[in-house]
Amino acid sequence: MSSASQSSWEPVRKVRTYEQVMAQIEQRMLDGLLAPGDRLPSERELSQLLGVSRPSLRESLRVLEALGIVDVRPGRGPDGGTVFVGRPGGGFTILLKMQLALGHFSDTDVLRTRLMLEEWAVADAARNATVEDHKALRGILDQMDAMELTARDFNRLDTEFHVRVAESTGNSLASYLMSSLRTAIQRRMIDAYERLADWQETAKTVRAEHREIVRAIEERDASRAVDLVRRHINDFYEVEPFTGGTSRPTR
Amino acid sequence: MSSASQSSWEPVRKVRTYEQVMAQIEQRMLDGLLAPGDRLPSERELSQLLGVSRPSLRESLRVLEALGIVDVRPGRGPDGGTVFVGRPGGGFTILLKMQLALGHFSDTDVLRTRLMLEEWAVADAARNATVEDHKALRGILDQMDAMELTARDFNRLDTEFHVRVAESTGNSLASYLMSSLRTAIQRRMIDAYERLADWQETAKTVRAEHREIVRAIEERDASRAVDLVRRHINDFYEVEPFTGGTSRPTR
Questions:
Q1: Is the pLDDT reported for residue A242 higher than 50?
Q2: For residue B142, what are the contacts with CB-CB under 8 A and spacing of at least 6?
Q3: Which domain covers residue A120, as residue numbers?
Q4: B223 or B247, which is more confident
Q5: Which of B3, B84, B116 has the CB atom closest to A102's CB atom?
Q6: Which of residues 55-74 of B touch A (CB under 8 A)?
Q7: Closest Cα of chain B to A137: distance in Å?
Q8: What is the DSSP letter of A248?
């Protein structure tokens, strides 16, 4: 017996109806028969075409919706229906939030992964950012200078800044990873900020460090940008040593 | 009017039943009331507790299952039911596959992101890998030396090798990102290998490069390991220039 035939055996696993539906939809995407902007047939029609019950079909559609692969729009008119989306949505953020809540990844892993992604992002942004990118980054920093911001709004702009740096690399997959991770931990970061005795003091440091990072990106100095962002993220943990708890901000 | 009250307004968005169910489950995880190994009440009981129909509840459960957050086991006995899992599952791979099929990310982005993750992985593995990690890596390379392997099995071991490198870093989140991406593109990589006139020739180069990478990791030489893995991944694209098609292997 040749090893090729030996190696072809695989353990049998029960495949659920919704998985079969999703596999067919995925195959149609790969075959180029489904593209962003395309609509699925109505639930009634599609359940007949696939030979599955409507509740089973609806389970598949909910999975696709939760993953951010389709957008389910109300109504039966030309604007209604299940439409394939053209840009990555919130699916990975939803997944990461739950994985973090279940403790699949430690706080240390989150911090180390953020360092990896952020260091890559500033280095690549220093190499690839355009003048428009520089302007956009400075625009966010100007908004962050407003003294009357709440901790929540300050944090939202903080996230926007870091995601915009990643977008300046021109690599939409890596910036998707970063923005998903950042958004998944945002609630915890805001909580941590709000617990700080004087978050405005911390905000001052953050503002100054962001300006330096943008300057390094504008001067196309990748290695300085990396050093700055590493210090920027590690700073908080050096002042308040990392304890592995769930309530640490991971700015 | 203070800016705090201005900033609290948010656009109203229709929240679906399954999203509300998922939000409650997530909150219970965050409150420490649901942990890996825990079971959800039966569908009948849970739909009553939440005041939702059983089809609606089942939609939420399917989403959690597809994300790899729960494992739905058949039967009503002590082994049956909906159980929260303790390790990250295939959810991100499923998502990435669909996003790639829809063209949310370009092949160039996939290649650049793989380079980022793989370079980080070998550098961190060179710093942190244990003697057990070294042995496991050599064990995979020994299996890859078997001459009678099919392209498919060779590729599977190739993925196993790269994922094992990432696991040697001790950072489970970053290695989850890498293994998910690698698994999402595996089908395409196998197809491309099988189309090569002589994939055994390519396999020889891959084998030799893997040995060199492991040697650099064992010698704790992070910068050499990074250079080697960068060349290892870029090699194919230099021989056959990157065309942006969907059929290129991205070893």
A1: no
A2: none
A3: 91-239
A4: B223
A5: B84
A6: 55, 58-60, 62-64, 66-69, 74
A7: 21
A8: -
pLDDT beyond 80 at A149: yes
Q: Which two tokens stand for residue A7?
A: 């190696």
Domain assignment of residue B248, yes or no: no
Using 50, 70 and 90 to split pLDDT, how confident is the model at A22? confident
Separation of first and last alpha carbons in chain A: 58
Q: Are A184 and A100 in contact (CB under 8 A)?
A: yes
Q: Report the distance separating Cα A223 and Cα A228, nearest Å.
A: 9
pLDDT (average), residues A197-219: 93
Supply the CATH number for residue A235's domain: 1.20.120.530
Q: Which of residues 92-121 of B touch A (CB under 8 A)?
A: 92, 94-95, 97-99, 101-106, 109-110, 112-113, 116, 120
- Shared domain for B77 and B37, answered yes or no, is yes
Specify if B64 maps to a domain. yes
Q: What is the ipTM of this complex?
A: 0.85
What digits encode the pLDDT tens for the residues B103-157? 999 989 999 999 999 999 999 999 999 999 999 999 999 999 998 899 889 999 9
Q: Which pLDDT does position A8 carry in this prediction?
A: 64
Are A173 and A208 in the same domain? yes
* Subunit contact A87:B104, Cβ cutoff 8 A: yes
For residue A51, tell me if it sits in a domain.
yes
Spell out which residues of chain A touch residue B199, defining contact as CB-CB under 8 Å: none
Q: Do B150 and A116 touch (CB under 8 A)?
A: no
My answer on whether A49 and A151 are in the same domain is no
Helices then strands, counting H and E runs in chain B, come out as 12, 2
Contacts of A87 in chain B (CB under 8 A): 104
Per-residue pLDDT, A243: 35
Query: How much is the pLDDT for B26?
Result: 87
Instruction: Quote the mean pLDDT of chain A.
Output: 87
Domain identity same for A20 and A52 = yes
Please answer yes or no on whether A150 and B87 come within 8 Å at the CB atom: no
pLDDT 10s digits, A23-53: 899 889 888 899 999 999 998 999 999 999 9
Q: Tell me which residue of B95, B155, B242 sits closest to A176, measured CA to CA.
A: B95
Whether B66 maps to a domain, the answer reads yes
E strand or H helix at B93: helix B91-101
Q: Which residue of A has its CA nearest to B92?
A: A92
CATH code assigned at B54: 1.10.10.10
How many alpha carbons fall within 13 Å on the CB side of residue A211? Answer: 9
Residue B5 has pLDDT above 60, yes or no: no
Question: Which of B173, B175, B190, B247 should we substitute to test contact with A (largest number of A Cβ atoms within 10 Å)?
Answer: B173
Domains in chain A: how many in total? Answer: 2
What sign has the CA pseudo-torsion B158, B161, B165, B166?
positive
The answer to whether residues B108 and B20 belong to one domain is: no
Instruction: Tell me the pTM.
Output: 0.85
Q: Which residue, A53, A84, A115, sits at the end of a domain?
A: A84
Mutate to test the interface with B, among A114, A168, A171, A181 (most CBs of B within 10 A): A171
Those residues with Cβ within 8 angstroms of residue B104's Cβ, 6 or more apart along the chain or in another chain:
A86, A87, A88, A172
